[in-house]
Amino acid sequence: MQEITATEFDKEVLNAECAVVDFYSTECPPCEALAPKFESLNNLFGHRVKFIKIFRQQNRSLAEKLGVKSSPTVLFYNKGQRVGEVLTGGIKKSEIIKNLQHLLPEEEITKQLSSQQPTVSLFDAAVIGGGPAGLTAALYLCQAKVKTVLIDIALPGGQVSTTHQVSNYPGFIEPQHGYMLSHQMSEQTKLCGTTYKVAVDIARVDLNKKTIIIDDYETVKAKKIIIATGASPRLLDIPGEKKYKGHGISYCATCDAKYFHDKEVVIIGGGNTAIEEADFISRFASKITIVHQLDKLTANKTAQEKAFTNPKISFLFESEPRAFEKSGDRMLTTVENLKTGSRQIISSDGIFIFAGMKANTQLFGNELKTDPWGYIITDEDMRTNMDGIFAAGDVRSKKYRQITTAVADGTIAAIAVAKELD
Fold first, then answer.
1. How many domains does the chain have?
2. Catalytic, out of 22, 256, 349, 409
């Protein structure tokens, strides 16, 4: 694997048969997560493909010329021509392999992948999920001298990392940007000595054998497992939703509100998330229509008061969306009045859906006991019905789901695990 500068780019990349280029930066957690995957793929395919790293901070002119605006960014070149996708952020090994198909025959890729030697990693405790619950659990375990690995299919942070501001986390006088709060939590846990395996594909989890297979070749074995996989936005499951997800329909205001400057937006939902995010979106959008199925909002009173006095926000109560369509650059939302049955079409530039959450338990089969809504049932020490398996945070069945309650769950689970290991 080579590291080059801008002056060598033409020779080493554009004149090469094929190349994969990683623009990285220092003090960059996603870059750190990518590095071992990039190196392992170089070991597999380096005899046929050049794997090249470029320090973006010292080669800004080249990066800007190529449209590289963040780190890490991975580009693919075949005979000097850029091919495939531009990969950024929490890049998975499988995403790079998928794009190698633009450089090598599929049968050659398959043959090389089959030649890699499976590995086994042994830990005292494995934490699956890198949100506040998982990060706190890993921190406490690490400080208790328990050999711990934190595994996540994304980068650490969970939902907090896409929250605009957090104003109710103790210890901060001023509201904190969600991404910074989650970054600080993650760095604290990493510096303690927790092993990170993040932005990976989890192929299978066997809770009885306490094994986790990641990226199809590494098996992680642990004596105890803490499940902290959180919850994710619930889909409405109506026509057009999946088709336009990411293409007019969003579930994250922090991620996408900035794209709606002086534009019109429809928001689905009336709970805390919907109304608080509506206030944030109103900083950008010129008009917001909130569609809510009940005759009144269910958000906290403070959020409601701000929404009702915001001149940009209007409401359609006792109404539900029935379909989403697109006409040119405009999104069309078909809305039904639940009292009269009448329908209308609302035209907007984008749609945000905040219709509740669902537990992320799809990795674990049906052996864990759950409540009627699919959240994992635990005792007061976060133990599940399975020996040596714990659950913490939003994935757990409980009354309130906040950052503070997730952190508390992670603390309790870690202390319980440490005591059992003693």
1. 3
2. 256
